[in-house]
Amino acid sequence: MKAYALRRLLLMIPTFLGISLILFLILNLAPGRPGAQQSGDLSQSMRGEVTAESYKIFREQFHLDKPILFNTRFTLTAAEVRAQVAAASGVGTTTAAERVHAQEALEDLGGAAVPFLVGLLDDPEPKLRDAATYFLRIDAVRPLEDPFDSHPSASLRSRNLAIDAENAELRTLRYVSDAPEATKLAVIARWKSWYVAHHARFEHDALGKLSMFFLDTRFAAYWRNLAHLDFGVSLISREPVVPTLVSKLKYSLTLSVGSLVLAYLIAIPLGVFSAVKKGTRADRVVTLGLFMLYSLPNFFVATILLYFFSTGSEWQSLRSFPTGGWSSTGAAELTTLGQWRDIAWHLVLPMGCMTYNSLAALSRYMRSGLLEVIQADYVRTARAKGLSEGVVIGKHALRNGLLPILTLLAGLLPSILGGSVIIEYIFGIQGLGLWVVDSINQRDYNVILAIELFTTVLVLIGLLLTDLSYALVDPRIRYE
Amino acid sequence: MNAEGAPAVRRVSYFSLVWRELRRDRLAVFGIWAVVVLLVLAVGAPLVSSNQPFWFHDARGWSSPWLVGLFDRLVFESSVDIFYNLLLVLLPLFLLAYAAARRFFGGRLVRRRGRLVAGCAVVFSLQFLALTPATIGGVENPLHYSHPVQNYRAKLAADPHASALFPLHHYGYRETNPVESLSPPSAEHWLGTDQEGRDVFARMLYGTRISLSIGVVAVALYIFIGVVVGALAGYFGGWVDTLLSRLVEVMICFPTFFLILTLAALIRERSIFHVMVIIGITSWTGVARLVRAEFLKHKGLEYAQAARALGIPARRIIFSHILPNASAPVLVSATFGIASSILVESSLSFLGIGDPNVASWGETLNAGRTDQRLWLILAPGFAIFFVVTVFNLVGEGLRDALDPKLRK
């Protein structure tokens, strides 16, 4: 048993890796840029230099400036960079969209473009020289180390201060486009001498190129972060993802686990009842009722319950339930018991909506599972021994009849987590489901990734528990 | 009667046996009839509800805006509608041609009925596929046909000499009318109007088209993927099986609805076809597992071994020998799949992540939720409930009919 549990645990690893791979590919190959809500709109208009740099830092911090799978930037040539700079600075015929695109590409190239930009400082075309100094200022800047560490060590602080000072110096290497020629030449000369001093940073040997090819990519950064269990910060709220996720977890878990437990508690007796009374009118009524419940979409039921019991209807007496949320506004002042009652009162409608769907599926399976078992020989033997019907059903048949609905648990988990999206949306409960919808709409990739990986782990654990509980219910199943 | 005097064996095909069983199940028969009615409603929607009159007569002469409007992208934006309108015109012609052919060729045709129906299905699905790119492109797409839409109701009211014949319910599903926003059900608007003054009855009626096509197309797609994956895994076994089974396991652990949401939200100009494809590529795992199990069972049976011994290529053994025998559980799961795909689509449009240009029931339901109007909640809610119930009923009936244990 222990060995089996261990093997199952190990098998979860490739599955988890597969899922994280699929998620990475979906999120990164999809069109639409993350963070476009804030910085991207600026890029449509003429961006100021400060915003250009902060946008670049933003992209760097979330590794959005890196190629997705393989980094081939060491094969970059002077001609390619020159063409991009020409497109970005409007030399030749370019549309506004092309210019923005070239600008962004140049900003993303970062250090890889620096040697060629320095080379462009001698270009005969003055516009290109101007543009080269502009992009040098952005690309030569070094990112801070570990900027989201809330308790930085002294050495980290001093290193970051040094980087910041260096960056501040680079920012002064500038001129306005109508500056006198002598100023321009002075700035260009300073850039050249800077490059002579720092060129080692931008040159790579064969090994460096190889590691750059595989490791300096979004893909590698993603796995590095996963290995550290580092899900980064939300692109929108700029707050670390994991603490927020943990704080929202209590809502979603209460809803989904609670409704699941409730569904099993009601479904088993109901299924047994209708299997025992097979063919009677009571059974037919229960079966038909469950079938209807099974087909009723829960967002319809939730909407209509809200209408009648909370907001819309004309019958005042019915409107006694809260419109949504988790607790009332003044709940903090209540006693502990009062707070619990308040939360319970808020949960009646959402929990009911989440329960009835799985309840219907479960008790239908329970009924058919038990019916199959009741026909078995050993049940007939038990009856023939003269055992009471209660013992026959409750002790002999039930245990085997439970197997099918245990299998169902594995399938129910993902659908319950998915179902909580709609229920949280309708009732305005700030759980994971609502958060995932908001994050998807705002392209907050870190949050989407964290939530989906987390729910996947939940499902994997659920599957494991299902398999283990088999062994408990059915002693015939031996895992060697 | 043959030479030995043994009684002749009445040949009864497997599916006619199943059909006989299915007809005993009253609920399933009701379900089948309801599906037929839904199909008729979907195809005939413009006959019941349209703001274009069948004919219109004024000082400038006769015209038939209804007929012209059937293929007009300004009246019907979605190519799903254009497809159904094409069916509306072609289906009666097909039936007429069939009746005529049957009269002349008689029995020979009846014997080939199956092939004829299959041919029609192929023609229609090709036509559907051909229309698909027309919606994904913008309105400037050269395949779009349109001419200025006129308000014929206003023209009729303004001109005392004009005469017109409108369909029973003379509103279109895209027609907005801010003056009549959120009006309750009346003789004019049978099920009221929504926030933008669009007629809810028309939206329900045309929503049938969306739901049925979502169900059928998404399920066809995922049955295809599931059958191929399951058949390969089950038939070849070994590393193919290991690889594909791992893939299936990965997909099962995914909270599918999250995946669908993510995919749908990341596509910028969503059309109903994107939604179909997304549902199709995320829901095939169940079918794959079913088919794999069936293939594992069947590949050891005598007929499959005999086929292998005869040197028949694996492709033919898989698809023409084993697959027909393994198709019963797939058929059942397809029927349930239609119901759940419809449910997924309406939840997506309920969350506002559907195709904004089509009349989707989920969208109206969400409007009812935000505006707190009972008619906006009840009409789409019961429509979804009815369609889902109907397909579930057929599925249950099929499952019982296909289960030899229950057959007497």
Helix-strand blueprint:
The complex is a heterodimer of chains A (480) and B (408).
Chain A: H1 2-29, H2 36-44, H3 49-61, H4 78-89, H5 96-109, H6 114-120, H7 126-139, H8 154-172, H9 181-198, H10 206-215, H11 218-227, H12 241-276, H13 281-295, H14 298-309, H15 336-374, H16 377-384, H17 389-401, H18 403-427, H19 432-441, H20 445-473
Helix pairs in contact in A: 1-20, 4-5, 4-7, 6-7, 12-13, 12-15, 12-18, 13-15, 14-15, 14-18, 15-17, 15-18, 16-17, 18-19, 18-20, 19-20
Chain B: H1 14-24, H2 26-48, E1 55-58, E2 61-63, H3 65-69, H4 79-105, H5 107-111, H6 113-136, H7 152-158, E3 163-165, H8 200-236, H9 238-253, H10 256-266, H11 272-282, H12 285-298, H13 302-309, H14 314-325, H15 327-350, H16 361-371, H17 374-402
Antiparallel strand pairs in B: 1-2, 1-3
Task: Provide an overview of this structure.
The complex is a heterodimer of chains A (480) and B (408). Chain A has 20 helices and no strands. With 480 residues, chain A is an all-alpha fold. Chain A has two domains: 162 residues, no CATH class; 233 residues, MetI-like (MetI-like fold, Orthogonal Bundle), CATH 1.10.3720. In chain A, α14 packs across α15. Chain A is elongated and about 110 Å long. The N and C termini of chain A lie close together (7 Å). About 3% of the residues of chain A have low confidence. In chain B, α13 packs antiparallel against α14 and α15 runs parallel beside α16. Chain B folds into two domains: 130 residues, no CATH class; 207 residues, MetI-like (MetI-like fold, Orthogonal Bundle), CATH 1.10.3720. The mean pLDDT of chain B is 84. Chain B is built from 17 helices and three strands. Chain B has a three-stranded antiparallel beta sheet with strand order 2-1-3, with no helix packed on it. With 408 residues, chain B is mostly helical. In chain B, a hairpin with a 2-residue loop joins β1 and β2. At the A-B interface, α1, α13, α14, α18 and α19 of A face α9, α10, α15, α16 and α17 of B.
